[in-house]
Design goal:
Elements lengths: L6 H12 L2 H14 L1 H18 L2 H23 L1 H4 L3 H32 L6 H17 L5 H25 L5 H67 L4 E5 L5 E4 L1 H7 L3 H4 L4 H5 L6 H13 L3 E8 L5 E12 L5 E10 L1 H50 L5 H17 L1
Antiparallel strand pairs: 1-2, 1-5, 3-4, 4-5
């Protein structure tokens, strides 16, 4: 019988599905779409800064570029979970979502570049570094769910940072001391971003591993509880069956000492549970006429841990002799030794009596058949001998001189005698 699917087993299956490559990609898509508005507070604040401090047209262009990149990315991701029907669909969706992530990163990088050109040389360096750092952190947060998209975004932002320094150096007409400080700040920010992404990835892996371990432990406990409850129900059912069975049921320990007997045992043998406990079945039931060879075969099977079936002559408490068909099954422990012996004994006294009567009837029938055969053989011999004489004399008589009627009479005697023979 197959085991039912447990509640924790369904939870574990759902957990594995959520943390599979396809599950993580679906979670990435849903997370990007659901946090669409949240991500744009930083974009809008930067655009507002450009409107106030630089040119409103550049600010509006930055908003348009940022929204366009997010729109393209989210429009594709919106229906991505429904497309993950098989491995090939997952691989295609993974590649395409990496491309839309790269496009979204390019639009953010364009906004930073616009800020560079809108400000005087060196004026927007801190803003550019801050926005690129925020974008990189945002990209790193989804690394556990979509490493491809995160890597594409981080690559775009790294190239944008290099472009920022190249543009600034070119606009300043060469290297100035401030560039050294800016590069040192960029290195520190890169280290911070890298550490943060490492922390995010390690935390996600640790949480997933811990959660799965908890589910596995809970599943193990649930299975043990289920198995225990199942075994208790099974034991209860078996106990009811054994208690109300028509055949005797005897439970013994490894030394054949009786532990329990059912009501049928008492009804058939007259011995109660109190009479039998602690004794062996042989001590309680064997009669003077019990076959020693049968007892020896039962003992050998028990020692070998093998089941056996024997017909045994027993004696009841009131001295009646009964025949039982004993089916004896040793129950083995984990080490292979005998732990319990289950014996089911059926009263076959009536069947043995019927067998005896049938055997006697067969012998009587065989004796009658032999007597009949002897009688027929004797009668055949006794009739054949004088009949041959009658036939011979009739033939001799027919050869003498007789009248026509006499010859007819002699021939009738001969033919009749031949027919009788």
């Amino acid at each position: 019988m197959s085991q039912p699917v447990l509640h924790t087993e369904r939870q574990l299956a759902a957990f594995d599905a959520r943390n599979s490559p396809a599950g993580l990609l679906a979670r990435y898509a849903r997370g990007r779409v659901s946090h669409f508005v949240t991500r744009h507070w930083l974009t809008l604040s930067g655009a507002a800064t450009l409107v106030v401090l630089s040119d409103w047209r550049i600010g509006l262009l930055a908003i348009f570029l940022a929204l366009m990149g997010e729109a393209v990315d989210c429009l594709y991701l919106r229906k991505l979970p429904d497309r993950l029907v098989d491995k090939s669909a997952y691989e295609l969706a993974y590649r395409r979502s990496s491309v839309t992530a790269g496009f979204q990163a390019v639009t953010i990088a364009s906004c930073v570049t616009l800020a560079d050109f809108a400000a005087t040389p060196g004026q927007a360096s801190l803003v550019a570094l801050s926005y690129l750092t925020g974008a990189a952190i945002n990209a790193g947060m989804v690394y556990p769910f979509h490493p491809g998209a995160a890597k594409v975004r981080l690559t775009v932002y790294a190239l944008t940072l290099l472009g920022h320094f190249a543009i600034d150096i070119a606009r300043m007409g060469g290297w100035v001391p401030r560039h050294g400080y800016d590069i040192l700040a960029a290195i520190m920010l890169l280290y911070t971003v890298r550490s943060y992404i490492g922390f995010i990835v390690a935390g996600h892996d640790r949480e997933a591993s811990h959660s799965r371990a908890l589910l596995l432990g809970k599943l193990a406990e649930e299975r043990v509880g289920h198995d225990l409850a199942f075994k208790e129900r099974e034991a209860s059912q078996l106990s009811l069956v054994a208690r109300h069975a028509n055949d005797s049921v005897i439970l013994s320990d490894a030394d054949s000492r009786i532990l329990w007997v059912n009501e049928a045992f008492t009804r058939i043998t007259g011995y109660t549970l109190e009479d039998a406990v602690g004794k062996t079945p042989a001590d309680v039931l064997n009669a003077p006429g019990t076959d020693p060879d049968t007892c020896q075969r039962i003992a050998q099977a028990r020692a070998a841990g093998l089941p056996c079936r024997e017909e045994v002559l027993n004696a009841t408490k009131d001295g009646r002799l009964i025949w039982v068909e004993a089916n004896i099954v040793p129950v083995l422990n984990a080490e292979g030794g005998v732990e319990t012996i289950v014996a089911i004994e059926r009263d076959i006294t009536a069947a043995k009596e019927q067998e005896r009567l049938l055997a006697e009837a067969k012998l009587a029938a065989e004796d009658g058949a032999r007597a009949k055969a002897d009688f027929l053989a004797t009668m055949s011999h006794e009739i054949r001998t004088p009949m041959n004489g009658i036939i011979g004399m009739a033939e001799l008589l027919a050869e003498t001189s007789m009248s026509k009627d006499q010859k007819l009479f002699a021939e009738t005697i001969r033919s009749s005698a031949a027919s009788l023979l």
